[in-house]
Recover the amino acids of this structure.
């Protein structure tokens, strides 16, 4: 196979891949779940939740936010700096489902005030 | 936004793949592990699937580029060990670039073929997995016996058997060595890399001027058999535990018949890429990891759905295209650079470089393994038996894994 043909094939392959990524990227993302659908059966799953912060326990390294939708769930945040989220804020959280005392909780990896 | 993040991950993955592919001993598993350990931080900025795309792109790029150090320096990893000898022979004919190009052709065409057949294979992969797995040990025993019997004369068959067993025992010792980092690096560098270089030093060879030519042509039936062989064996071994590109190459060599040196390089390149890409299918259909990179992806993603698989295959195509251009370019640079150094200096430099890397990764034990495996690797060349029988170092442990 000539190098020029190989180069053309490589370019076509790359373009086909880009097209595939472009078409599928609109369907990809962390699944948004209502809080009443999150249980210990979803352990280790990545989820996206929206809700209102109804309680904040803030310590030096960790904060625990109670998110209500109206069902509530605890969200654990390992802090790198101060947490500027207070009661009443609406937030979007992406994180991993974990279990604590037989109850599902979320270990937050991304928090956004909405 | 998601598309742009994915594209950035592909490009960064390709960039990382250049380093893991070109630097002997720096494997994608190492970078993947680093990524897992920092994923808690990285997932604050991006999604798990993006980290997966980075790993896939790095791994695919790696499978294209790792033929460069294997052919030009005689410093292979497990996936390219069998390409050292034909690659080195072409290097001594001034065709190092063409040797690399043959592996690239194999990688790219097999990548396209395997991606084309993946949609049809998804439904029977679990069936295949259940029915082949119990017989893997027996398949490898038959293939190994066949390789030994194919030596000409009882004398060479005996020495072939001896090389297979002694390499296997060495492999068993090394792979079960407690607390040894990167055990395969000293083992394979000695068996296939340093031993080849030292023997060529004994024969007083000189690396001739390298030509960026297109003089090699392979009959279509040979290249078709190489691509088909690579796709089938790379896929099956990508599905099953304990088997990698090296075992796939040994199996393929028995089934595709005599290919000759050129098509053999196409086969090796293809197997290497297909083996990784099909391990993504094992991840999707069986939720099982078949190599270090997919283990890392499993840690981050747990499992993938159809969208995730399509995303990874798309990333593989982009990375494959980019890696083709990169590998051709980099091997041209190597072709220009390698003749500026005297062969003895080059071999000494590579030997020192490999020794230092072995010491860095695997300490004193690694050096002991390197010396031993270099000695074992010289036996087949000195006795005139097939060098591939030294692959007993990986095949014997796998046989025992399945049979015991």
């Amino acid at each position: 196979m000539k190098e020029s043909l190989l180069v053309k094939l490589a370019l076509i392959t790359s373009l086909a891949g880009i097209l595939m990524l472009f078409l599928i990227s609109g369907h990809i993302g962390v699944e948004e779940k209502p809080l009443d659908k999150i249980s210990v059966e979803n352990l280790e799953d990545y989820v996206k939740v929206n809700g209102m912060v109804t309680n904040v326990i803030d310590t030096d390294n960790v904060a625990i936010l109670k998110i209500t939708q109206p069902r509530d769930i605890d969200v654990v945040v390992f802090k790198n700096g101060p947490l500027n989220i207070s009661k009443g804020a609406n937030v979007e959280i992406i994180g991993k489902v974990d279990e604590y005392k037989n109850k599902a909780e979320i270990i937050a990896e991304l928090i956004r005030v909405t | 936004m998601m598309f742009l993040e994915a594209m950035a991950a592909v490009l960064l993955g390709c960039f990382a793949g250049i380093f893991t592919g070109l630097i002997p001993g720096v494997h994608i598993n190492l970078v993947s592990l680093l990524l897992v350990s920092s994923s808690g931080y990285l997932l604050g900025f991006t999604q798990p699937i993006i980290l997966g795309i980075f790993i896939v792109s790095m791994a695919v790029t790696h499978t294209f580029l790792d033929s460069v150090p294997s052919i030009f320096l005689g410093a292979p990893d497990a996936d390219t060990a069998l390409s050292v000898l034909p690659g080195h022979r072409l290097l001594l004919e001034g065709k190092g670039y063409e040797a690399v190009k043959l592996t690239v052709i194999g990688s790219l065409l097999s990548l396209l073929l395997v991606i084309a057949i993946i949609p049809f294979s998804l439904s029977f992969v679990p069936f295949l997995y259940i029915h082949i797995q119990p017989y893997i040990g027996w398949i490898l025993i038959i293939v190994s016996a066949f390789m030994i019997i194919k030596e000409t004369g009882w004398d060479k068959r005996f020495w072939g058997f001896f090389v297979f067993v002694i390499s296997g025992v060495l492999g068993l010792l090394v792979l079960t060595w407690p607390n040894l980092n990167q055990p395969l690096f000293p083992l394979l560098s000695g068996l296939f890399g340093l031993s080849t270089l030292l023997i060529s030093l004994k024969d007083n060879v000189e690396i001739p001027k390298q030509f960026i030519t297109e003089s090699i042509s392979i009959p279509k039936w040979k290249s078709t058999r190489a691509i088909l062989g690579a796709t089938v064996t790379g896929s099956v071994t990508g599905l099953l535990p304990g088997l990698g590109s090296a075992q796939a190459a040994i199996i393929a060599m028995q089934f595709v018949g005599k290919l000759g040196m050129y098509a053999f390089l196409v086969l090796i390149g293809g197997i290497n890429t297909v083996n990784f890409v099909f391990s993504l299918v094992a991840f999707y259909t069986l939720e099982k990891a078949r190599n270090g990179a997919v283990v890392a992806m499993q840690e981050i993603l747990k499992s993938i759905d159809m969208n995730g698989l399509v995303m990874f295959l798309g990333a593989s195509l982009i990375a494959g295209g980019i890696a083709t251009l990169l590998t051709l370019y980099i091997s041209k640079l190597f072709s220009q650079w390698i003749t500026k150094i005297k062969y003895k200096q080059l071999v000494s430099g590579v030997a020192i470089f490999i020794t230092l890397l072995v010491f860095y990764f695997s300490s004193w034990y690694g050096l002991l393994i390197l010396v031993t495996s270099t000695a074992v690797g010289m036996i087949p060349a000195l006795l005139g038996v097939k060098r591939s029988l030294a692959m007993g170092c990986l095949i014997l442990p796998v046989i025992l894994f399945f049979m015991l």
Notes: The interface with chain A takes residues 2-3, 6-7, 10, 40, 43-45, 47-49, 101, 104-105, 108-109, 111-112, 214, 223, 301-302, 307-308, 310-311, 313-322, 324-325, 328 of chain B (CB under 8 Å). The longest helix of chain B spans residues 343-383.
